[in-house]
What we know:
Elements: E1 5-6, E2 9-12, H1 16-26, E3 32-35, E4 52-56, H2 57-65, H3 69-75, E5 77-79, E6 81-86, E7 92-96, E8 105-109, H4 110-123, E9 127-130, E10 135-140, E11 145-149, E12 154-157, E13 159-162, H5 169-173, E14 178-194, E15 201-207, E16 210-217, E17 226-234, H6 238-243, H7 246-256, E18 264-266, E19 271-280, E20 284-285, E21 288-290, E22 296-297, H8 305-325, H9 333-361, H10 366-380, H11 383-394
Parallel strand pairs: 1-12, 2-3, 2-13, 3-9, 6-15, 13-21
Antiparallel strand pairs: 4-8, 5-8, 6-7, 10-11, 11-12, 14-17, 14-18, 14-19, 15-16, 16-17, 19-22, 20-21
Helix pairs in contact: 1-4, 1-8, 8-9
Amino acid sequence: xxxxxxxxxxxxxxxxxxxxxxxxxxxxxxxxxxxxxxxxxxxxxxxxxxxxxxxxxxxxxxxxxxxxxxxxxxxxxxxxxxxxxxxxxxxxxxxxxxxxxxxxxxxxxxxxxxxxxxxxxxxxxxxxxxxxxxxxxxxxxxxxxxxxxxxxxxxxxxxxxxxxxxxxxxxxxxxxxxxxxxxxxxxxxxxxxxxxxxxxxxxxxxxxxxxxxxxxxxxxxxxxxxxxxxxxxxxxxxxxxxxxxxxxxxxxxxxxxxxxxxxxxxxxxxxxxxxxxxxxxxxxxxxxxxxxxxxxxxxxxxxxxxxxxxxxxxxxxxxxxxxxxxxxxxxxxxxxxxxxxxxxxxxxxxxxxxxxxxxxxxxxxxxxxxxxxxxxxxxxxxxxxxxxxxxxxxxxxxxxxxxxxxxxx
Length: 409
């Protein structure tokens, strides 16, 4: 019989959130076992995932504190301003980081984020990465969480953490229910090169069928400006969007941006993703916590999904470090409740705002459009309200864990 391998925590899922959590804990002398079903080396190839993410400035400070500043500086594109419009109307809401200080965010290809995290995780002696691996059981009792793999290996820890995504088997096996629904939309994701510089400005253009986000990236290898596109289309149009050739897709994008990008060339295959919302009824069960997409998933309208997961990481790391320093059992109900209370309110508020914005801008007709344009112009003229929106974009509202300020705990 195999003897169990012990650690401080077991993390099920080694993606962007799970790997960041393992690294954050390792930087504070916590040992973790990270188990993932995938061969993680395949997740850093260009063919695996063409998506890019906006790393909010608070999240970027955490990644720098964990030793990932080099990839942000080498491969990231700073977002110096965000412009929000109703279609191509002249009224807009404009957020500007100014010439000095932190950008509003940093655009990064997901595969490059994974590459940097995988490098650091493999270099950390306190992280035992087991992938690919198939979990056969997770037994949680009063004393420990015990994970058994298909190959017979056994791991045990005071706490198990589910970071295995929106279809989390760990969450389902624990009997944790979800509030969830599907949106009548899908997101088309691609990358374009164009002739007019983006000026490090991210644009969110709202149409009744859904928003189109233009997200500035580092220049193409031939020197042309490059932009990531996240275009929300009607579900009925999703199949047609999937089949558009590069020239037809470039022409469709050019129409929706009213020619402001100049000559456009699609330089990456488009992927079309169904859109939905989910939020776990609770983030905790006996010796188990949920983080990232295992706990919540939102509409990509404001690019906050991954940043919510990283805020989970920062809060959970702080809760566990504080618990260890005071001699508490990491899997005790009090410790679990502390994390859940800290994160649940923030995640609920962000989820409600993104869902509400999507529904508001999806209402067709001239009158709703006129009201939206009036509202955008009004927020532009009210500095305190505008500052609140900017703080949300940066991920700097509420009680910030130390990691989100760029400090170790």
